[in-house]
Specification:
- Chain A has about 375 residues and is of the alpha+beta class.
- Chain A has three domains: about 80 residues, Helix Hairpins (Orthogonal Bundle); about 140 residues, Immunoglobulin-like; about 120 residues, Cytochrome c-like domain (Cytochrome Bc1 Complex, Chain D, domain 2), CATH 1.10.760.
- Chain A has twelve helices and ten strands.
- A five-stranded mixed beta sheet of chain A has the order 3-2-1-5-8. In chain A, strands 4-10-9 form a three-stranded mixed beta sheet.
- The two termini of chain A are about 55 Å apart.
- Chain B has one domain: Cytochrome C Oxidase, Chain A, CATH 1.20.210.10.
- Chain B has 18 helices and no strands.
- In chain B, α4 packs antiparallel against α5, α4 runs parallel beside α16 and α14 runs parallel beside α17.
- The chains are: A alpha+beta (about 375), B mainly alpha (about 525).
- At the A-B interface, α1, α2, α3, α4 and β7 of A face α4, α6, α11, α12 and α13 of B.
């Protein structure tokens, strides 16, 4: 009960806070919500002050000179030049100032790189264009997509408060716990960044890099992908909800229940109407970014599905493309991203939407069989 | 050296005229002009792309572009401004000025000089034509990071080819400049007496020769990964995408200094002239330039603090990067000391040079902030970085180019430019430039990533300010075009010395400088 009230209060303050940030101009780093972010914040302020001091001294002298030592004011040019003592002084002083900066900076570097003794570990995978989260301790996996409706982006609907910074499934972590992040990517480079938590790490396909944060305050923290990853680089935000330990336990229980429902779906057999309805949703979330809602793709960049040989030819080949992707292109392998039921639905949808009236029906069982590697034989019966 | 003798030189050997004159020319002044015209045209082409980018970013949402086209614009804007504007403009200055400053009759290898220029437009054409190919122009960022760069269409291969050609052009130009400077100085003009502009270009040319082959290697590996089944940068085949970044930045960090050292040289010519006082520390300026060049080879990974390096590597690259602030500081202090107790006047070249010193230093300070690894990790790939490198490349490199053009144009054309228009150009540029790029620091601090076509609502105000500034800055460059064209056509006759405080061999020549100069080497005491 307390948790619920806390959440209501939190939403209230979050709303008030973000409305005030809308109205005002922000001049510094975001308000830190972790010790690392706080350290970086302080380090940045320190360096800015030093730079400001140097700027005032050097350009104070220059502007004084510009005012006083001008020909129009009748100033006659002196002819001094070359002075080794002066050169040595203005080489040594900056060096000493830099040493003073390097020491606190090095301490923060070493702290940031120390990913030992985590309370929990989350593997984060960048995809074109969404994030996947695997909770290694709690055995939870899900994908996190942009939740801002298309209408808001193209301007046919008013933009919401968290425009482009909202997702369907946020990453949820308990407050005050050391969270170790294992970050990788599936296709191209991405970078996972939540400014208020002070964690940023490139996601590199084929390699796992780690980072960590410990959130000090309950709240919702937003970030974005910060490494150019193609067309929808600007449309794969990150939302981290930091909750109390009790709320976290409740969230884990809820996610496990949802996983069981999904597993049950994989064992079912569906009617075509059910598959088409579900398939359209999957298509919107996983395919439409490239192949477009009308199935026409983008000529020269992303092929059309409407009328394509794959979507109207043998169903087994179609399933194989969805499962395995097309290596060397932007077409990802969805075998690891979508459940059997979802792949069955989206294949059925692609084969029956728009002008593709094949009448074919794919069932989860056939997808499960195709996963075994014998794609062509297993998927064939589904076509009948 | 009478005018009649020069007239004879100009027309006496059956020189081709019209287009063939320019295609076949081996004259350093003609080739210098070609480089500068090419750079000016590309400035307007790539500047138009910048205005399209800023127009899209005027408000949240997608209005003018789609995300794919937006990425093409940012990528091409970067590639063309670096390889099509700044570098060719500096090559233009080198061609015009190095022989005039050294008392040499021409560059060491005139025919290679012609070739070095004329392959450049081919590279530009390869890049531009890809806008109309299937899939559009290259959209993977000017840094060309794989695996994204592997995904693209035919235009990505054309870009690789264009980069090869531009690299070849730079290497040929550099060989020419090094040979000219080392072998063709007038009797008595020792290395430590030659104008600082020649020193900065000599060091730049060595940087180019050292790093352009590295870039060529990197893009060749991209080419074979794309087309011939190699896996240099593909982890699935035993490669490493991060290896590309190491190789690329081993080229691209010295490249940063390739883009700024000649600017230091120009400013070091302009400030003493208008302060009517010798450069304060000539020798220490030479040593500082050399130190910056050497340090530039051991700092590359500061562009990669977020790839996940060990703490020791982060510390090394942080310390070495901070060290660059020392010789850069020496340069700034020397410029200020040169102005100190001078007798300054503020013609347009001097205004641009002063703005350079002040605004380049702001870019230097944001560079120092970014050198601090933990702060860089927060700011990497945000608009803070965009603000930083535009302060050093627009108010740094580009402003020095403006300063140089206003400074030497009377010598080249024989006419004074229109001072009133020049001052309008300066003030609109300097104000516009700050309105565009200063707010970008705040956007980056607040967390706006770079290379995004659409943004969250809290970034709106500063983006609108930046866009207004961009249009002021962009359109004020038309004044520059008008000034240049007017000066070529006519204007007050320039004296030989042109500027009261000007020192150096080029000012002993008539204005305009004859087609052939220093056929007999002058003697420098």
């Amino acid at each position: 009960m307390i948790g619920k009230w806390q959440r209501v209060g939190l939403m209230g303050t979050a709303l008030a806070f973000s409305q005030s940030t809308l109205a005002e101009y922000a001049y510094n780093l975001q308000t830190p919500a972790s010790q690392v972010a706080q350290n970086v914040f302080d380090l940045h302020n320190l360096i800015m002050l030093v730079c400001l001091g140097i700027f005032v001294v050097v350009f104070g002298a220059m502007f004084y000179s510009l005012l006083k030592h001008r020909k129009s004011a009748g100033h006659k040019a002196a002819h001094f030049h070359e002075n080794t003592t002066v050169e040595v002084i203005w080489t040594v002083i900056p060096f000493v100032i830099l040493m003073g900066m390097a020491y606190p900076a090095a301490k923060v570097v070493i702290d940031m790189k120390d990913t030992t003794n985590p309370d929990m570990t989350i593997k984060i995978t960048g995809y074109q264009w969404k994030w996947g989260y695997d909770y290694l301790n709690d055995d939870i996996s899900f994908y996190s997509n942009l939740a801002t409706p298309r209408e808001q982006i193209v301007g046919s609907a008013a933009k919401g408060e968290h425009y482009l910074l909202e997702v369907d499934e946020p990453m949820v972590v308990p407050v005050g716990k050391r969270v170790r992040l294992l970050i990788t990517a599936n296709d191209v480079l991405h970078a996972w960044w939540v400014p208020a938590l002070g964690a940023k790490q490139d996601a590199i396909p084929g390699f796992i890099r780690d980072s960590w944060f410990k959130a000090d305050k309950i709240g919702t923290y937003r970030g974005q992908c910060v490494e150019l990853c193609g067309k929808d680089h600007g449309f794969m935000p990150i939302v981290v909800e930091v909750v109390s330990e009790a709320d976290y336990a409740a969230w884990v229980a809820k996610k496990k229940g949802a996983a069981q429902t999904a597993a049950a779906d994989n064992a079912k057999s569906f009617e075509i109407a059910e598959l088409m309805g579900r398939g359209e949703k999957v298509y919107e979330a996983s395919c439409a970014a490239c192949h477009q809602a009308n199935g026409m793709g983008m000529p020269g960049v992303f092929p059309a599905i409407n009328g394509s040989r794959v979507a109207t030819g043998p169903i087994a080949d179609h399933v194989a493309v969805v499962l395995n992707g097309r290596p060397g292109t932007a077409m990802a392998a969805f075998a690891g991203q979508l459940s059997d039921a979802d792949i069955a639905a989206v294949v059925t949808y692609q084969r029956n939407a728009w002008d593709n009236k094949t009448g074919d029906l794919a069932q989860p069982a056939a997808i499960a069989a195709a996963r075994g590697g014998a794609a062509s034989e297993a998927a064939a019966p589904a076509a009948q | 050296m009478s005018d009649a003798a020069h007239a004879h030189d100009d027309h006496g050997h059956g020189h081709p005229s019209g287009i063939m004159r320019w295609l076949t020319t081996t004259n350093h002044k003609d080739i210098g002009s070609l480089y500068l015209w090419f750079a000016l045209i590309m400035l307007f082409v790539a500047g138009t792309m910048a205005l399209l980018i800023r127009a899209e970013l005027f408000q949240p949402g997608l209005q003018l572009t789609n995300p794919d086209f937006f990425n093409q614009l940012t990528t091409m804007h970067g590639l063309l401004m670096i390889f099509g504007v700044i570098m060719p403009a500096f090559s233009g200055f080198a061609n015009w000025q190095v022989p005039l400053m050294l008392g040499a009759p021409d560059m060491a290898f005139p025919r290679m000089n012609n070739w070095a220029f004329w392959i450049l437009p081919v590279a530009g054409l390869l890049l531009m034509v890809s806008f109309w190919l299937p899939g559009g122009a290259v959209a993977g960022g000017w840094t060309m990071y794989p695996p994204l760069f592997i995904q693209g269409g035919i235009s990505y291969d054309l870009t690789i080819l264009a980069v090869h050609i531009m690299g070849l052009s730079s290497i040929m130009g550099s060989i020419n400049i090094i040979t000219t400077i080392l072998n063709m100085r007038a009797p008595g003009l020792t290395l430590m007496k030659m104008p600082l502009f020649c020193w900065t270009w000599l060091i730049t040319a060595y940087l180019l020769i050292a790093t352009m082959p590295v870039l060529a290697g990197a893009v060749t590996m991209l080419l074979t990964d794309r087309n011939f089944g190699t896996h240099f940068f593909n982890a699935a085949g035993g490669g490493d995408p991060v290896m590309f970044q190491h190789i690329f930045w081993f080229f691209a960090h010295p490249e940063v200094y390739i883009l700024i050292l000649p600017a230091f040289g120009i400013v070091s010519q302009v400030i003493p002239t208008f302060a009517r006082k010798p450069l304060f520390g000539y020798a220490s300026m030479v040593y500082a330039t050399a130190s910056i060049a050497i340090l530039s080879f051991i700092v590359w990974a500061h562009h990669m603090f977020t790839v996940g390096m060990p703490a020791a590597a982060q510390l090394f690259f942080m310390f070495s990067t901070m060290l660059i602030a020392v010789p850069t500081g020496v340069k700034v202090f020397n410029w200020v000391a040169t102005m100190w107790k001078g007798s300054m006047s503020f013609e347009t070249p001097m205004l641009f040079a002063i703005a350079f010193v002040c605004l380049f230093t702001i870019g230097g300070f944001s560079g120092l902030v970014l050198a601090i690894a933990p702060v860089d990790i927060q700011l990497h790939d945000t608009y803070y970085v965009v603000a930083h490198f535009h302060y050093v490349l627009v108010s740094g490199a580009l402003f020095s180019i403006f300063a140089g053009i206003y400074y030497w144009l009377p010598k080249w054309t024989g006419h004074m430019y229109n001072e009133t228009l020049g001052k309008w150009h300066f003030w609109l540029s300097v104000i516009g430039m700050n309105i565009v790029f200063f707010p970008m620091h705040f956007l980056g601090l607040a967390g706006m990533p770079r290379r995004i076509p659409d943004y969250a609502l809290q970034f709106t105000e500063f983006n609108q300010i930046a866009t207004v500034g961009a249009f002021i800055f962009g359109f004020s460059q038309l004044i520059f075009l008008v000034v240049v064209l007017k000066t070529i056509k006519g204007g007050a006759k320039a004296t030989d010395r042109v500027w009261e405080g000007a020192e150096g061999l080029e000012w002993t020549l008539p204005s305009p400088a004859p087609y052939h100069t220093f056929e007999t080497a002058p003697v420098v005491k």
